[in-house]
Amino acid sequence: MARRNKLLKFSELLTFPNVYENYEVTNALLVASQDDQVEMANKWKKEHFKNDNPITLELACGRGEYSLALAERYPERNFIGVDAKGARIWKGAQIATAKGLDNVAFLRTRIEFCHLFFGKNEIDEIWITFPDPFLKKGKYNRRLTSPNYLECYRKFLKKDGLVHLKTDSDVMYNHTNTVIEKFKLKTNLDTYDVYGDNPMVHPDLDVKTYYENANISNADSIKYLQFTL
Ligand SMILES: C[S@@+](CC[C@H](N)C(=O)[O-])C[C@H]1O[C@@H](n2cnc3c(N)ncnc32)[C@H](O)[C@@H]1O
């Protein structure tokens, strides 16, 4: 994307009423539309969604295809897409606004800081959609299902809250299974070939993300794990 176009999107991002950003991770303040500084931990339902419905996070949401699709399917639930990339979130926020999807919001931050922005038990479910597998040696701690990340999710995910991982990466799938086994977590669903199963093991696996559609990695199959912490 041209740099000018990207800068334009960054400046527009906070004109959306459904976008929050964090610039300064030493405190829990988020910048919201109109440049207001707000503390949102434990307040998302009351202050943003204005309802008491459960909240699902989509981590590494990119353009937020899962948040948008599930928000349409489940109007009685709330969804928050989280990603570090502003231009991608811009796209999701624009679609949510155009479609009048009041049950979707976006948070631009690094996922490792999420415990600052969500309170204990505030989140009901997590989807992790096509996270980067970080293949280089010594980088496995950056995988979004590494123990350090799971420890972070534990701070705001309800007890027995589901974690869904959808990935095209064998490395990410195997790594996650190893972590699940090592820390004696509970797997509810596990498939190595989402579209090879008939019927699919979960009804929402038919949603295709931008990355999945582009088939950048040329993967043979899409994998899915559902587990609790
Ligand atoms: C391969 S893309 C997938 C995006 C989207 N889920 C899709 O399937 O089209 C991975 C995304 O994870 C985001 N990401 C990776 N590590 C992150 C982190 N620690 N904090 C925030 N975002 C992160 C990247 O910015 C990128 O948008």
Tell me the Rg in angstroms: 17 Å
Order of helices and strands, N to C? HEEEHEHEHEEHEHEHE
Number of alpha- plus pi-helical segments: 7
Poorly predicted residue ranges: none
Name of the CATH superfamily: Vaccinia Virus protein VP39
Number of strands: 10
The amount of helix comes to: 25-40%
What's the CATH architecture? 3-Layer(aba) Sandwich
As laid out across the biggest beta sheet, the strand order is 1-6-5-4-7-8-10-9
- Strand fraction equals 15-25%
Bound molecules: S-adenosylmethionine
CA-based shape: globular
Brief overview:
This protein is of the alpha/beta class and 229 residues long. The protein has helices at residues 3-13, 44-49, 65-73, 86-99, 147-154, 170-182, 210-214; strands at 19-21, 29-31, 37-39, 55-59, 78-83, 104-108, 123-129, 157-167, 186-191, 223-228.
Question: Which features does this protein show?
Answer:
229 residues; alpha/beta; binds S-adenosylmethionine; Rossmann fold; 29% helix; 10 strands; single chain; two-stranded antiparallel sheet; 7 helices
Structure overview:
This protein has 229 residues and is of the alpha/beta class. It has a single domain, classed as Vaccinia Virus protein VP39 (Rossmann fold). The strands form 2 sheets. Strands 1-6-5-4-7-8-10-9 form an 8-stranded mixed β-sheet, sandwiched between helices. The protein has a two-stranded antiparallel sheet with strand order 2-3. β7, α5 and β8 form a beta-alpha-beta unit. α1 packs across α4. The chain is globular and about 45 Å long. S-adenosylmethionine binds next to α7.
